[in-house]
Amino acid sequence: MPREIDPISEAPPCQDGMPQFIPVAEAIAILLKPHAEVVIHDLRTQTIAYIANNISRRDVGGSSLADLKDIGLLGADVVGPYRKTNFDGRQLKSITAVLRNGAGEPYGLLCINFDIAPIEAARDALNLLAAFQGAGAQPSALFNADWQETVNAAIADFLGERGLAASALAKEDHADLVGRLEQEGYFSIRNLVPYLARVLGISRATVYKHLREARQKKLQATEN
């Protein structure tokens, strides 16, 4: 029965000498598919022995000289990460494991070439969003027009100071909140009373009652 070729690599069998590294190359390529290829180089012949998920369009048996030039000295067991440029201009982030024999002499390389173009595109998009100039203060015209947002912010400040949720406010808290909103001039906003009653879960009559009391206290303080 003819040997089946793994569809991810679509490459001929590995050259003699390093077939034990094929499963490693395929596992890495499957995990990082479709963004990475894994290339096994045979330093004894200075040729490519195997390619998993071929994105560089090179051939098994082709020269390894270009990769050796990128890597340089083989004193370390792991070289990189370092940058490479693919045939189509895409930038690759690469790392190489040096394969050594029992005497510690290098006889092969396992290179992972990762296409970082999608990551860089995502980074640029995030940087663009983060640098958006309108992300600061809200335009005053919009802020003034959306009075409900203004009131909500004031209520949120009040709740934050007391460490309470709106549903947990007691009668005294409602009175204090209405007093603060009156002190800060919020009741000049039309339709505030019905909106505040709905938000706090109390009747309009209760809001008006607290408002009268707040205004009486304000008047008394002015007279004194």
Automatic annotation (TrEMBL):
Domain YheO-like: 20-123
A Pfam family it matches: HTH_22
Highest taxon above the source species: Bacteria
Signal sequence, renumbered to the chain: none
Limits of the Transcriptional regulator DauR-like HTH domain: 151-212
InterPro entries referenced in this protein's UniProt entry, alphabetically: DauR-like, DauR-like_HTH, YheO
Protein name: Uncharacterized protein
Organism: Rhizobium freirei PRF 81
